[in-house]
Amino acid sequence: MANYISSVLKSLLLLLHLVFLIQQHVDSASIVKFLPGFEGSLPFELETGYIGIGEEEEVQLFYYFIKSERNPKEDPLLLWLSGGPGCSSISGLLFENGPLAMKLDVYNGTLPSLVPTTYSWTKTSSMIFLDQPVGTGFSYSRTQQYNKPSDSGEAKRIHEFLQKWLSKHQEFSSNPFYVAGDSYSGMVVPATVQEISKGNYQCCSPPINLQGYVLGNPITEHAIDYNYRIPFAHGMALISDELYESLKRVCKGEYVDPRDTECLKLVEEFSKCTKGVCQEVVIKPLCVTETPNCYIYRYLLTTYWVNDVNVRKALQINKESIGEWVRCYFGIPYTHDIKSSVPYHMNNSINGYRSLIYSGDHDLNVPFLATQAWVRSLNYSIIDNWRPWMIKDQIGGYTKTYANKMTFATVRGGGHTAEYKPYETYIMFHRWINGQPL
Q: What is the pTM (predicted TM-score) of this model?
């Protein structure tokens, strides 16, 4: 009898614990109709919230969810991951492909303003902007007892996040689903796609309607990404013919951690030539955030805006989450355990998922030449050969389509992220997501 009572009590306690967790989930999502700095009510549907990850839900991942402005019942659902690792997804929302942007006014001590954009991907898709890994943006841990984030570990956490998010938003469970991101998320997105794909064939959880993924200037493999900086720099007239020929002859195409002393000297010469160049987009001036006439001044304005007490209140930020918000926390504890994401791309292709891989063609960090090289290494036949894609009568970039449902495209004049050419990138994405040729 005592054992029976004990068993019943345990069951009741477990039930109460589950009810408590469900209640926490319900309370953690909020509809946001007004944002400080934006005049009037928001012209789109915004939800913010936290999803608990792990057995004890010790990790709390923060997200911004914006419904498609076209037909949310049928339009695709995209998960957006910013790079870093450690860069808040606000980087995507306010700089790259969201419906709001910072107004570039000189900061005068008052709250910076927000303005609507004309290039939001939410015009045709619903989007979840996720702060990950833990410690990024407004995502935090309730305790110190959690696994240190890693590339492969994040793929599992993101998959868990999606399962829980979709269980709360079942009206989107049948929508075509895509994972998207840029920069360092090139290591995490392909692994996440594979993790979701595997999960769809396992028991106990409803399948996610995974259709494919989108990556911009993705970090893929350090040696490939770095080695192609030298030919890219030469093509952009950043180094001389003589230095380029010497580098090729002496280093034989391997420029990462050279052991040959002559090669090392030449690589150092290359570094001197490119030190004063803006790595993210070589045609922009190298400048500091605090300069009002500089493009990245918006990063400073965003920091002032996000750290305003009324903005945090509107976004329903848990007070226990973090102290000062930073756009990119580059010192985040993290294990880089995926050395190359190429095998993940291969597996995802074999499983039939669509992909759009695009490159701003003026990025020195991850040159388009590097991305082209690993795409070429997949050895798929070409369906649509290299050609310009147009916006009205202007060239938006160049594109090539492969038999594995992979489309590669450049964005002419673009940089390391979509923020440098947001309208052109939007046109490219809009066509691809709707199944149209670029």
A: 0.91
